[in-house]
Amino acid sequence: MNQPPVLHRRTFLRGLGAAMALPMLEAMLPARSLAAAAGTAAKSPTRMAFLFVPNGVNTTEWTPLATGADFDLPYILQPLQPYKSELLVLSGLAQDKGRSNNDGGGDHARSAGSWLTCSQPLKSEGSQIRVGISADQMAAHAVGNQTRFGSLELGLEPGRQGGKCDTGYSCAYSNNISWRNESTPMTREINPRLVFERLFANSVPKEVSEGQKRREIYKKSILDFVLEDAKSLQSKVGGNDRQKLDEYLSAVREIEQRVEEAEKAVASANSSVTNGYEIPEGIPESYEDHARLMADMMVLAFQSDTTRVCTFMLANEGSNRSYKNIGVADGHHSLSHHQGDHAKLMKIRDINRFHMQQFAYLLERLRSIPEGDGSTLLDHSMLVYGGGLADGDRHDHDNLPLLMAGRGGGTIQPGRHLRYAPETPMANLLLAMMQRMGSKEDSFGDSTGPLRGLEG
Amino acid sequence: MSWKFPRALAAGLFSSLLVTGVLAEDAPPSINKLTEQLASKDLPARREAAFQLLHLGAAAKPALPALLKALDDDDKQIWSYVIQAIAAIGPDAQEAIPVLIERFDSRKGRGKRERDLRQGMMRTAYALSRIGAPAVPPLIQALGEGDGSLRMGATRALGAMGPAAHDAVPALIKNLADNQDPLRDESAQTLALIGANAGPALVTALQDSEARRRTGAANALALMNPPFQAGAKDVEQAATNEKDPLARTALLAALPKTGVPPDRCVALILPAVTDENETLRHAALNALLSNSAVRQAAVPKLAALLKDNNPAVRERAARALGRVGPGAVDALPTLLQAARTADGAPAYADALAQIGPKALPALLDILQKSKPAESKWVLRILHSFGPPAVPVLAEALKSNTPEVRIAAANALAEMGHEADTAAKSLFVSTKDSSPAVQAAAFRALVAVHADSGRLKPLLQEALTDKDPQVRRAAAAGMAALGGAAALGVDGLVDLLSDDNPAGRIAAVQALGQLGDKAAPAVNALISRLDDPVLQSSVVEALGHIGPAAAPAVPRLVEMAKSKKDDQRTSILPVLTGIGPGAKEALPLIYEAVRDSAPDVRASAATALASVETDNGKAITVLAPLARSTESGKVRRAVAHALAKYGPAASAAVPGLITMLEKETERGEAMRALKAIGVKNVPDLLAMLSVNDPRVKTFACESLGSLGPEAKDAAPKLREVAAQDGALRASANAALKKIDPSAP
């Protein structure tokens, strides 16, 4: 018979304005489950994340030549070599609703707007925005009531929510991939401090505000405010859990310090304009630092089961930022209209690979976190990485660049390159993922059934 | 299977209905109204009706006749929504079956583009599958029809029904030998989706006299999930006896998927893993990897093959072990031995890298104990590991052997940013007892983007080191980190001779950053134009130096004659920077203005304006381009170039005015028009028609400045003043100047 667990999964460390969720600890498992942990990976929930990159890719350097498990990673995907066995390369999927379909130009806006909604964005610059609810939000509807937040939306680049961004389409389409309903985007947060506070603040605004002030005045960490609870918890749990808790709290502190450093660095910088746009206050000057900080917070959110659903835009669609840190001074969008120019294609390739390095970082983090049953956080995740355009010059909406990482709690067999029939809807992939998250829907967007083959 | 309207969508639907204005006030849309609207001549109205009907789900049944009619709508959004709407009605849409099946038939083609035909087929098949059982008999009949597209669509629809389509098994098995490859593949997939009910017939088909049918049956069994384990013995026997290469390949894939014991699978698959035929090897490897028990059973057998006498067999076995990944860790000792024998050949490096971090301790151990010459292959392998090898390489920086420490630092440098976590160890190595290690550590620290605040003082100090290789590495680092001023032009010229390419590139780039202050280095830079590693950086640096780079013109002209577009597009801006001093390049520039590549023409237009001192000649060439060229990029470059000539370029005005129509070109065209000035009333009237207040304001002001000469523009100006509040003041001011006596 199962013994009740010592701790509830939703245990928080609390302090003034703070409520810190915890990673899965042995003490949260029923005693019998613990004994059988090696054989059961079912206790951990499945997480879902989507990472979006804009402007298409250098397709010849993206797509592996061979299919099945016997394939080599091309140049752009090589940063993922250490995680190849955790990876599915998905070729052949199309987003028909990103196409013009008699609506004229605006492929960039449509590609982002339709990416997770699989619905045709209504061509409009403002008053009549309409696309569709996105797959992440469908999943959040299914499981969001079991976590503190239904979902988390992250980004790296500022961007307007109104006005025109692409040939008659509102900026809301280009700058968001997550849609709460047909007309309301879930705007992504780009400021690490705000994400940090959201993850660890309690639900009493007055306390939160007071806690923030005290931390600022007395140069305190959020950990100082939950110290009492942390000490009490340490005394209740076993050695493994104590170590895990220590590691978790250290990781929180390390992230908090990086947030603080970013705030100091930008405050002291002579110029906050770099790579073609102004860096708002509190955002790390280095794109890479920013990306990794946000990725680390996504990991914390998943680890502590604060949310199970996340979207992360590595740049807005149509982004024209440059990547001088890797020797690319030209704007990304300008480069994407390469007209076959070899030099431009090489620069696009370098940008694509650089983005991939950030994804590799995230995979490493997820893989390094045990879930208490012999598996890792990555084993219990499904991450889709990619975009809504294949070749940025031709504005192709088929054969999209898409990767999936993780094992979806044992429902996915990674380590393969799967090539689907041309025009297979991307909605089928999203439907298959939604169902793995617990959604009861059997149709989504323009799906024609859940995507087959993910399970092996 | 029942289709329901997604619950989460339902919440948003009502608000969207309000937004789109389909609703009459607060009432839900009536089916009658939507049906009527679906036949409207107004495209947005038809689209909206189709969209709303789709979202009604099964409730849209009364609209089915209208929906079937609308399948022929020319607008893709409409017919696509309509098929989805029929799918959403589900079993109640039975009367749609014949119409939908007919749409598969290419003999009744609708002239759509290929991708839309595919979309149409896929969605129609899905709609039929939603209607369900009543569609099965007519679909089975369609499987025997003469049109390939019809057979294909029917097959797909049956596949989407899964086990419910089991009556179609005989007809599908017949089609496994069809002449069309895609139909055979689709038939196999459909049989797999039908599942266990198709199993016995598929097993029987493994004995068929037609190889295509045997191949298809094996493919179907391989795809079936859950697997058809009752067929294991038959599959094993067929795989043992099969002679046809394609059928054999398909059977290899079927073996692990039908419950054949792992050791028997391995025995049958392994010979193909090391076969000469690459396609067969690939298929065999995929079969081996498709089942974890088979994969594990293969590891010791593959390890044994690493000792085969044939080096090709050994490499193929290594490759297979690599594909097994971390699960092949038991083969590690044998694999390391084979890698050592093969001097770390790529197949072994790749295999070890794919086994992953578990291979790293053994590699570090070899690295620490081996002689310098032997360590190279280990470092090569570590390099292919990527970031997971960084801690091992950082550890190797503590080796007793200087050569290993140097090689480790170099390997980290090659990884670049991915090795940034080794910075701490590399900083320690800058104080190494060996100057060569120090130099390698400095270069690596720059390459991994180590903290420049900490690195710069160390580099500054090392600039005066007694060892020349340390000084050179420090100079390269300073140059790369933007500290060129500390080195001076002489120091950078000296660095152009660095043995390390990264140092030479840093020197060139740093000279470029110095701009015209780097003029004394021009000859040294010209001499490096033959270095393929440096060439593009040198060209860019010369561009930054400006007029003082004139001595480079003859060599640049020679390089531009290579006809490579990217070389010309990089050289022409240098000539622009040099200006009149590059007159020797004028024939090249004039030729480039007529080039077929837009990038080249755009750069040439800019260069011409900078280099040509005869303004009249330059204007004669550039002015017509504002109108005649098809490339917006060239037009923008021409407009930019013409601005410098002011009123002398008035011949370009009509062309520049046509550019105003395009939002992306308007800014550049306006800049040029302002510089040139517009004195012609018809031209200015044309500008008043451009939908941009900046253009209209300029036109008003220009008309005003013409005074009474512009009297023909008065009616248009009055119209503008009446219609556009923002422009009223400008238009009235112009009217006042044209006719001061007017009220």
Question: What would you note in describing this structure?
Answer:
The complex is a heterodimer of chains A (456) and B (743). Chain A is an alpha/beta fold and 456 residues long. Helix content of chain A is 34%, strand content 14%. Chain A has helices spanning 31-35, 107-115, 135-143, 171-174, 192-200, 205-218, 222-225, 227-236, 239-268, 287-303, 332-336, 342-367, 426-436, and strands spanning 12-15, 18-21, 47-52, 87-94, 152-155, 164-166, 169-170, 179-181, 184-185, 273-274, 277-278, 309-313, 381-386, 402-405, 416-425. In chain A, helix 5 packs parallel to helix 10 (287-303). Chain B contains 46 helices and no strands. With 743 residues, chain B is mostly helical. In chain B, helix 8 packs antiparallel against helix 9. Chains A and B meet through helix 3, helix 12 and strand 15 of A and helix 1, helix 5, helix 7 and helix 17 of B.
Lateral strand order in the biggest sheet of chain A: 5-12-3-13-14-4-15
Low-confidence stretches of chain B: 1-26
What percent of residues of chain A adopt helix (DSSP H or I)? 25-40%
**What profile does the largest beta sheet of chain B have?**
none
The parts of chain A where pLDDT drops under 50 for at least 5 residues are 37-42, 269-274
DSSP helical segment count of chain B: 46
Oligomeric grouping of the chains? heterodimer
Termini Cα gap of chain A: 35 Å
Number of strands of chain B: 0
Could you tell me the strand content of chain B as a percent range?
under 5%
Q: Separation of termini of chain B? A: 79 Å
Given the C-alpha coordinates, what overall shape of chain A results?
globular
Class by alpha and beta content of chain B: mainly alpha
